UniProtKB/TrEMBL annotation:
GO molecular function: cysteine-type peptidase activity
Entry similarity comment: Belongs to the peptidase C40 family.
Gene Ontology biological process: proteolysis
Record-annotated NlpC/P60 domain positions: 298-430
Entry keywords, A to Z: Hydrolase, Protease, Thiol protease
Signal peptide: none
Protein's recorded name: NlpC/P60 domain-containing protein
InterPro entries for this protein: NLP_P60_dom, P60_peptidase_YkfC, Papain-like_cys_pep_sf, SH3b1_dom
């Protein structure tokens, strides 16, 4: 258990608002250094590369939310395709609202539903492979229309599901009636993606990209290729934490890459759409200032803290909207920088059989729950329905987390009503003061702690 100085103890007072509005949060808690100094063995490897590969293999083999694209048959039945589409693309039966707070005409929703083109799914089709070219939204329906459940909420777009990143392989299963969208199966999700962001190629070309050649892993929150008017397909391409791209180490030092000698950059290879409309690959430059590594980072508690703090303050983005990420996207991208595969959504993450799961059942009393949190280590993932937090450490034995959240509620000393904090981003908060209701601590709603360690 982490032991930190008593001067930083978690405390709150109704008469004196807590620092930074969050109860018990001090300025020092917003620096990774604070948490690193408390670690007894900061650089001890939690899981080595062989253990991570074995866990990833279990994830692919045992977790039903993970799709093994390499194991798909050469032909895919239409019944399965329709099940995937119908499982996602179910039109809402209540009034929905647009970004301006106006009720969406049911006829508009019906047109969107018809664009799924379900009656054109063939009984049987060959597996078509493709690769994502740029960060692209995954949608519940083939439309960019943002849809909300209330007129005064324009943050949580109910048609937004997730995002895919450059180099992500997909299997193309269906096309919308208007021809602008593809329904694709990726390793962790099946959803609609704009057709312009996918290039189709041969199975071996897509799944074999990079192979055994040297590569770079993005270890910052993001990295961007340099702007290059000579090659728009690889210009200003945003790469997210954990994205791996092949590195062209044999590129001649005096040979320009899209008009720029690579003396101050890394030459990498990115997917593009060729002149024939098919998948091709082209060189691009990542600046030497980019936060990248020539391998996945060692999975240590110190690195978990450092990686999580690289997102601190980023705006909360439901389903990876706002060019950001949500709670489950945040933790999965942190772990991806170590080469660790976990499911996309909290509902799947929290029950994954491939992780070291501690269940906190409904019959577990409050004191036992608190004790489980006091024993949690940095990097452990704490789940309540619809949300996940990553443990950072402890202050006087009390657990503190970093998480990507829309907000938290707490009950100030002596107060009779909850106070709601609209945090809307990646924040550091103590766990024990959080309240799920007037008489229900959030601790009592925890369903599981997933430990990505032995």
């Amino acid at each position: 258990m982490l032991a930190l100085p008593a001067a930083t103890a978690l405390a709150s007072s109704a008469a004196s608002p807590p620092p930074l509005a969050v109860p018990g949060l001090a300025e020092s808690h917003l620096s990774p250094r604070f948490w690193l100094e408390s670690l007894a063995h900061p650089d001890r490897v939690v899981l080595d590369r062989a253990a991570i590969e074995a866990q990833n293999a279990r994830m692919v083999g045992e977790d039903p939310s993970i799709h093994d694209l390499a194991a798909l048959p050469d032909r895919i039945g239409g019944t399965q395709v329709r099940e995937w589409i119908e499982g996602l693309s179910t039109l809402p039966t209540v009034t929905m609202y647009d970004e301006d707070g106006q009720a969406i005409d049911p006829g508009v929703l019906a047109t969107i539903g018809a664009n799924t083109n379900l009656d054109r799914v063939p009984a049987d089709q060959p597996a078509r492979y493709g690769m994502v070219l740029r960060r692209a939204d995954l949608r519940a329906f083939p439309t960019a229309l943002r849809v909300f459940r209330s007129a005064d909420n324009s943050d949580i777009d109910r048609f937004q599901e997730s995002a895919l990143f450059p180099g992500d392989p997909v299997v193309v299963l269906h096309e919308s009636a208007d021809g602008d969208w593809l329904f694709v199966l990726s390793q962790r999700y099946a959803a609609w993606i704009p057709k312009e962001h996918v290039a189709e190629g041969d199975r071996a070309q897509v799944l074999g990209w990079g192979g055994d050649q040297p590569y770079l892993v993005v270890t910052g929150a993001t990295a961007r290729t340099v702007h290059t008017p000579e090659a728009p397909g690889v210009s200003d391409v945003q790469l997210e934490m954990g994205v791996r791209v092949p590195r062209l180490v044999d590129w001649p030092a005096d040979r320009p890459v899209n008009g720029q000698v690579p003396a101050a950059g890394y030459v990498v290879e990115l997917p593009v759409r060729g002149e024939d409309g098919r998948l091709a690959f082209a060189p691009a430059l990542l600046p030497r200032s980019a936060d990248v590594s020539d391998d996945y980072l060692p999975l240590t508690e110190a690195n978990l803290v450092r990686q999580s703090f690289k997102f601190l303050g980023e705006r909360y983005g439901w389903g990876h909207s706002y060019n950001a990420r949500d709670c489950s996207g945040f933790v999965s991208e942190v772990y991806r920088s170590f080469g660790v595969l976990i499911p996309r959504n909290t509902s799947a993450q929290s029950v994954s059989p491939a992780l070291n799961r501690l269940e906190l059942g409904p019959d577990m009393d409050h004191e036992a729950r608190v004790q489980a949190l006091r024993e949690a280590r940095p990097g452990d993932l704490v789940y309540i329905p619809g949300h996940v937090m990553m443990v950072l450490g402890h202050v006087d034995g009390d657990p503190v987390a970093i998480h990507d959240t829309s907000g938290m509620s707490w009950l100030p000393d002596g107060a009779s009503e909850l106070q709601r904090l609209h945090l809307n981003g990646v924040v550091v908060t103590p766990i024990l003061p959080m309240m799920a209701g007037r008489d229900t601590p959030t601790v009592d709603r925890i369903t599981a702690i997933q430990r990505i360690r032995p």
